[in-house]
Amino acid sequence: MATLKVPATVPPVADDCEQLRKAFQGWGTNEALIISILGHRDAAQRRAIRRAYAEAHGEELLRSITDEISGDFERAVILWTLDPAERDAVLANEAARKWQPGNRVLVEIACTRTSAQIFAARQAYHERFKRSLEEDIAAHVTGDFRKLLVPLVSTYRYDGPEVNTRLAHSEAKLLHEKIHHKVYSDDEIIRILTTRSKPQLLATFNHYNDAFGHRINKDLKADPKDEYLKTLRAIIRCFSCPDRYFEKVARQAIAGLGTDENALTRVITTRAEVDLKLIKEVYQKRNSVPLERAVAGDTSGDYESMLLALLGQE
C-alpha cells in the first residue's frame, strides 16, 4: 500500500552521500538530485545515508539540507528524511506547543500508529526535546482536551487480534448511554477510547451500529461545530478507516483558496511508506481526480516535485 518507489538496484550508501554533497556544493543547489536520491530511499536506507554522511563530512545531513534549501520544499525533505519515530516526535512537539482545539495531529499519531511505533516516538521525543510528550501536552493543552489527549498518547495498547465480544456489547451500550446524556468527557468514554486495542474498539463500534441503527460518529455530531466532538470523531475515524481520514485531510488541505502545505506535507511524508496508495484510491473515488493531479495543480517547483516523487509518480 506504500507509494514510495525504490530503485531495483540501489547505489552504495557512500555514492548516495557523495552525490548529495555535490548537490549542496557549488553556486547553486541541485534540488533535482536531492529528490532523485532521498525521494526514492526507504527509512532504513535514509538512516544509513544520514549516518554515513555525518561520518564522511562531519556534518549532519539535516543541517546541510537546512542550509541549502528553504520553505515548503525544505520542510518536506526534512520530515521525509527523519526516521518515522523522530518525525512523529517533531510533529507532536509542534502540535503540543502550538496547540489549538482544531489540531488533530496528536490524534493521528496516537491512533494510526502501532503501540511500538508510539512508544518509539515517545522515546525519540525524550532524546530530542529532553522532556516527555505527556508533560508538554499537559503544559499547553487544557480542560477536556488535556483529559483526553494525555492518556491517548501515553497508552501502550494490546496489538493482538483477540476480541471479547461480550465486552464489546457492554461497552457499546455504555458509550451509547454516555453520549445520549451528552457527557462526552466522561471518564468511561475516555477509558474505552484510550485503553482498548484496535480490534476491540472496532468490535465495539460495529456493535454500536448494529444495536442502535447508526454509527457512533452520527451520535457525536450533536453540535457539528464543537471541536471536542470533532476530536472524538477523529479518534474513531483514525481507528476505523484511516485511509478515509487521511483522504479528507489531504482534500481539505488542497480545497479552497489557499493550500494548507503543512497538512498536505504531513499526510504524504507520514503515509508514503504505509498506506498512501490506498489513500490515493479513496481520493480518486471521492473526487474523480487523481491525487497527483490535485497536488500538481496546487503546488509548484521543487516542493511539487518532492511530493509527486513520494506519491509514486514516474
From TrEMBL:
<dbReference type="GO" id="GO:0009409">
    <property type="term" value="P:response to cold"/>
</dbReference>
<dbReference type="InterPro" id="IPR001464">
    <property type="entry name" value="Annexin"/>
</dbReference>
<dbReference type="GO" id="GO:0005886">
    <property type="term" value="C:plasma membrane"/>
</dbReference>
<dbReference type="InterPro" id="IPR018502">
    <property type="entry name" value="Annexin_repeat"/>
</dbReference>
<protein>
    <recommendedName>
        <fullName>Annexin</fullName>
    </recommendedName>
</protein>
<feature type="binding site">
    <location>
        <position position="26"/>
    </location>
    <ligand>
        <name>Ca(2+) 1</name>
    </ligand>
</feature>
<dbReference type="GO" id="GO:0009414">
    <property type="term" value="P:response to water deprivation"/>
</dbReference>
<keyword id="KW-0106">Calcium</keyword>
<dbReference type="GO" id="GO:0009651">
    <property type="term" value="P:response to salt stress"/>
</dbReference>
<feature type="binding site">
    <location>
        <position position="24"/>
    </location>
    <ligand>
        <name>Ca(2+) 1</name>
    </ligand>
</feature>
<dbReference type="Pfam" id="PF00191">
    <property type="entry name" value="Annexin"/>
</dbReference>
<feature type="binding site">
    <location>
        <position position="68"/>
    </location>
    <ligand>
        <name>Ca(2+) 1</name>
    </ligand>
</feature>
<keyword id="KW-0041">Annexin</keyword>
<comment type="similarity">
    <text>Belongs to the annexin family.</text>
</comment>
<feature type="binding site">
    <location>
        <position position="28"/>
    </location>
    <ligand>
        <name>Ca(2+) 1</name>
    </ligand>
</feature>
<keyword id="KW-0479">Metal-binding</keyword>
<feature type="binding site">
    <location>
        <position position="304"/>
    </location>
    <ligand>
        <name>Ca(2+) 1</name>
    </ligand>
</feature>
<keyword id="KW-0111">Calcium/phospholipid-binding</keyword>
<dbReference type="GO" id="GO:0001786">
    <property type="term" value="F:phosphatidylserine binding"/>
</dbReference>
<dbReference type="InterPro" id="IPR009118">
    <property type="entry name" value="AnnexinD_plant"/>
</dbReference>
<dbReference type="GO" id="GO:0009408">
    <property type="term" value="P:response to heat"/>
</dbReference>
<feature type="binding site">
    <location>
        <position position="254"/>
    </location>
    <ligand>
        <name>Ca(2+) 1</name>
    </ligand>
</feature>
<keyword id="KW-0677">Repeat</keyword>
<dbReference type="GO" id="GO:0005509">
    <property type="term" value="F:calcium ion binding"/>
</dbReference>
<dbReference type="InterPro" id="IPR018252">
    <property type="entry name" value="Annexin_repeat_CS"/>
</dbReference>
<dbReference type="GO" id="GO:0005737">
    <property type="term" value="C:cytoplasm"/>
</dbReference>
<feature type="binding site">
    <location>
        <position position="298"/>
    </location>
    <ligand>
        <name>Ca(2+) 3</name>
    </ligand>
</feature>
<feature type="binding site">
    <location>
        <position position="296"/>
    </location>
    <ligand>
        <name>Ca(2+) 1</name>
    </ligand>
</feature>
<dbReference type="InterPro" id="IPR037104">
    <property type="entry name" value="Annexin_sf"/>
</dbReference>
<feature type="binding site">
    <location>
        <position position="258"/>
    </location>
    <ligand>
        <name>Ca(2+) 1</name>
    </ligand>
</feature>
<feature type="binding site">
    <location>
        <position position="299"/>
    </location>
    <ligand>
        <name>Ca(2+) 1</name>
    </ligand>
</feature>
<dbReference type="GO" id="GO:0005544">
    <property type="term" value="F:calcium-dependent phospholipid binding"/>
</dbReference>
